[in-house]
Design brief:
It is a single chain. The protein has 15 helices and no strands. With 330 residues, it is mainly alpha-helical. The protein has a domain of 221 residues: MetI-like (MetI-like fold). It is globular and about 90 Å long. 26% of the residues are buried.
Length: 330
């Protein structure tokens, strides 16, 4: 029952936090220096015999509910959102939820695959570096980790495209599908999309694996220097049992925070990577919407990320009790 009480308490706190986060997001969106409404009003006012820019602005603001005050507009948006109505995207001219459903799963697949490779690469290498501290292996892994952390996304992605797309011509520069996509079989279409996702996924893995690798190494070193590890070795346990049965289990505790906090990243989309490779995921979609001043889509997207962040923190807290029996949620 203590676990249930903890979850209910955290959910209630999360609702309060989400309310104020949504309020801040709404105020920021309303204070944008430009919006898609202004662009449409300016475009329509330039047509022959059309109404003035001010008249079009008043008409469009009334149609989109932008003629309300800040507070009234926010509570109107909250009321609509609780009923599942988030309005139409100004930029994409379709319902916000429809555009979201069309793009979110592509970003999720990319993020999930990248996270899978990140975990299976970073954690073992971090453990190996800690076991062989100050050795050539440790220095090599540390250098690779620092290089991955230091590489800007746009630079590394551009370097990959220069080498593998321009010079070697193994991959296309942009897009999710090739020119002959429509003539391919179902399996061929799947393989074509997978082929176009190789470079974006490699980019995400390389720029993300370094920080997790260093984090694993640091925590593993702290655990290996603990008293109970020296006691386990003094009892004659094999090094393998000491590392993987005692030390690694306690190293998982801080790693749970990283994994739980990565939940929003699975759905938020890699904005820079998707933009550079023209992958039509939620990252590129939200970028275009924000640049165009698309308030309905931006509001929905940012609020969705806030919900995922709160959910990720809750999952991390629950996983603490699973990984470490000493932790009690009560």
């Amino acid at each position: 029952m203590s676990t249930l009480k903890f979850i209910v308490k955290r959910l209630l706190i999360s609702v309060v936090i989400l309310f104020f986060v949504a309020l801040i997001i709404y105020v920021l969106m309303r204070c944008l220096p430009t919006s898609y409404v202004e662009a449409i009003a300016r475009q329509k006012s330039m047509q022959p015999g059309s109404k003035s820019f001010e008249e079009w602005m008043a008409q469009l603001n009334a149609a989109y509910g932008m003629d309300r005050g800040m507070v009234a507009g926010f509570f109107h948006w909250i009321g609509q959102a609780l009923r599942g109505h988030f309005g139409d995207s100004w930029f994409y001219t379709v319902p916000v939820t429809q555009k979201f459903r069309e793009t979110i799963w592509l970003s999720f697949v990319i993020g999930a695959i990248a996270m899978f490779f990140e975990l299976i690469i970073a954690i073992p290498l971090g453990v190996i570096a800690a076991r062989k501290q100050y050795s050539k292996t440790d220095y090599t892994i540390s250098v690779l980790a620092v290089a991955g952390i230091s590489l800007p996304t746009f630079f590394f992605a551009s370097l990959l495209k220069l080498v593998f797309s321009v010079h070697l011509k193994w991959f296309d520069l942009f897009g999710l599908v090739g020119r002959n996509y429509e003539q391919l079989t179902a399996l061929g279409k799947l393989l074509d999309k997978a082929h176009h996702l190789v470079l974006p996924i490699v980019t995400l893995v390389v720029i993300s694996v370094g920080s997790l690798m260093r984090y694993t190494r640091t925590n593993m070193l702290e655990v290996l220097n603990a008293d109970y590890i020296r006691t386990a070795r003094a009892k004659g346990l094999s090094e393998r049992k000491v590392i993987y049965r005692h030390a690694f289990r306690n190293t998982l505790i801080p790693l749970v925070t990283i994994v739980g906090g990565s939940l929003p990243g699975l759905f938020s989309g890699a904005l820079i990577t998707e933009t550079l490779f023209s992958i039509p995921g939620i990252g590129l979609t939200s970028y275009n919407a924000m640049v165009a001043g698309d308030i309905p889509f931006s509001m929905f997207y940012l609020t969705f990320l806030a919900i995922l962040t709160l959910l990720g923190n809750l999952i991390s807290d629950i996983l603490y009790a699973v990984v470490d029996p000493r932790v009690r949620l009560a």
